[in-house]
Design brief:
The protein is α/β, with parallel strands linked by helices. About 45% of the residues lie in helices and about 15% in strands. Among the domains are: about 50 residues; about 80 residues, Type II secretion system, protein E, N-terminal domain (GMP Synthetase, Chain A, domain 3, 2-Layer Sandwich). β4, α12 and β5 form a beta-alpha-beta unit. The radius of gyration is 28 Å and the shape is elongated. The termini are far apart.
Length: about 325
């Protein structure tokens, strides 16, 4: 009789029925209250039931115990609680398999490439630099004609010829550039390239002439340029890091030294991928995410580059950037 009583007790326990149903056995109570079901799952996890993975507090905050695969086309119905797979997490969602990870990366690539134009036209200011300086009385007509002639014959920037050939102050050229772009002139005093190396890949610092100069209050990144701002890069950094990016020009004499310091700094590891098609790039990035198993990963486009950043270990309040040892980048291009 005691054995029969124990069996009857188990049969009447909804938690036992729910676990038995997960194993493919009959569950007569299919109208179990959802709140009761969640409480039952919580108790199962706390007692570390055999064959079940314990969900961490970070996972619980991110998606809860009932989190399912973030791929809309997934038909498995797996919940993260019942999969021996805590990662990877891509753009805030967990993927139950490598196929689902690749599908989500493919969707993200299509999103980033949507509306992309083939040829990038250089930005033209309403008032050219030389005319602006002439209007301000900072240069003479003779100085402007001489600088324009040298630029046509030898190339280069007009401001550089004004300084080197016509004896114009570099500070005036920088002020004129700031007026053209309606931005501040940023100082380089206190520049800490080591502390900012995790924010922007070295490739972008070199290719786009952008130097992260300072992080204010952990919320605002000041990004310096020599003579031409890059709003596309600034917006991509904002989307990737969650920081607000303020762009400005840096005096020509200071910019070169700041960029050189930045390029000598150690950066997070990066993998460069040249793909023949968007499908090939999605496959390569999906494999990289599966291999790293990141706690978070995001994808943004920067001009012709697709930038995937993976964070191995989630840190409270750190966003998608962290210490250089926990961040991995994949930068891909499609076509020739």
């Amino acid at each position: 009789m005691p054995l029969l009583n124990r069996q009857n007790t188990r049969e009447s326990d909804p938690e036992w029925n729910l676990q038995r149903d997960r194993s493919g056995l009959r569950n007569p109570d299919r109208n179990l209250d959802p709140h009761a079901a969640e409480e039952i799952l919580r108790r199962v996890v706390e007692r570390k039931a055999p064959g079940k993975r314990t969900v961490s507090a970070e996972e619980g905050k991110r998606g809860g115990l009932m989190q399912t695969c973030a791929n809309p086309q997934c038909r498995t119905g797996w919940m993260q609680l019942w999969r021996n797979r805590s990662g990877p997490v891509f753009e805030g969602g967990w993927s139950c398999s490598a196929a689902c990870t690749e599908a989500r990366v493919r969707t993200a690539l299509s999103r980033e490439n949507k509306g992309r134009t083939g040829t990038k036209q250089p930005y033209r200011h309403r008032i050219p630099l030389g005319l602006l300086m002439l209007e301000k009385g900072w240069i003479t007509e003779s100085q402007l004609r001489g600088a324009v002639t040298s630029q046509k014959q030898n190339g280069g920037r007009l401001g550089g010829w004004l300084v080197r050939q016509q004896g114009v102050s570099g500070e005036l050229v920088t002020r004129a550039l700031a007026l053209q772009w309606s931005c501040p002139v940023l100082p380089t005093a206190g520049h800490d390239p080591e502390g900012l190396a995790q924010l922007v890949p070295r490739l972008f610092v070199d290719a786009f002439g952008a130097v992260p100069l300072r992080l204010a209050a952990g919320k605002v990144l000041y990004l310096g340029f020599e003579d031409r701002l890059d709003p596309v890069l600034a917006r991509a950094i904002e989307r990737m890091t969650g920081l607000r990016v303020e762009c400005g020009v840096v005096a020509d004499a200071d910019f070169g030294a700041a960029q050189e310091r930045a390029l000598r700094t150690k950066y997070p590891s990066v993998e460069l991928v040249e793909a023949v098609s968007e499908e090939t790039l999605a496959r390569a990035m999906g494999r990289a995410i599966e291999k790293a198993g990141p706690a978070e990963a995001r994808l943004v486009r920067v001009h012709d580059f697709l930038w995937l950043r993976m964070l191995r270990k989630a840190e409270p309040g750190a966003g998608i950037f962290s210490e250089t040892g926990t961040v991995e980048d994949v930068i891909g291009t499609v076509g020739g």
